[in-house]
Amino acid sequence: MEEKNYEAIIEAILFTMGESVELDKIANAIELDKQETKKKIEALRQKYEQEERGIQIIELDGAYQMCTKNEMYEYLIRIAKQPKKRVLTDVLLETLSIIAYKQPITKAEIEKIRGVSCDHAVSKLVEYNLVNEVGRLDAPGRPMLFGTTEEFLRSFGVHSIDELPVLNEDQVEEFKHQAEQEAEMKLEV
């Protein structure tokens, strides 16, 4: 390895790990002895100090960790306190409705109902903590089963799934008819 790459490698290790990494593990990774590795880490620590960066490397009982400087705390709090905006698009709402009414349900079953792939929609709903994995189907490949979360109940103001509105057959037929008309219009364009 070239001399100039050691600092970058150490930086990448500490940044990626997120927690403290023992000196001997870093030394093994960069193929240097502990003493030489410690010199490289110290040089990197000093560079962060001299350049007045927002991050630092700290030593914790023979291990090193990259973390934010204490002076930056107030700025991090400003970001952390900002509420996350969740946008539930029509696709997400449709997928969420299917999961809510048919749970537990697999992605394949959702896709059969929607007629299109649902990977992105389910991933977003999991990210928003509105749905989660509730188990595995006892079938080949053991597909994941999805269901709604407590956050879903809070967000939609219901105490349980039993409180979701029940659709009568006339409403279902009306929705099907509207969906067919929309599909025909898209095909004409």
TrEMBL record:
Keywords: Cell cycle, Cell division, Chromosome partition, Coiled coil, Cytoplasm. GO terms for cellular component: cytoplasm. It is found in: Cytoplasm. It comes from the Bacteria. InterPro entries: ScpB_csome_segregation, WH-like_DNA-bd_sf, WH_DNA-bd_sf. Residues 27-61 form a coiled coil. GO terms for biological process: cell division; chromosome separation; DNA replication. Gene3D superfamilies: Winged helix-like DNA-binding domain superfamily/Winged helix DNA-binding domain. The keyword Amino-acid biosynthesis does not apply. Belongs to the ScpB family. Homodimer. Homodimerization may be required to stabilize the binding of ScpA to the Smc head domains. Component of a cohesin-like complex composed of ScpA, ScpB and the Smc homodimer, in which ScpA and ScpB bind to the head domain of Smc. The presence of the three proteins is required for the association of the complex with DNA. Participates in chromosomal partition during cell division. May act via the formation of a condensin-like complex containing Smc and ScpA that pull DNA away from mid-cell into both cell halves. This is Segregation and condensation protein B. It comes from Roseburia amylophila. The gene is scpB.
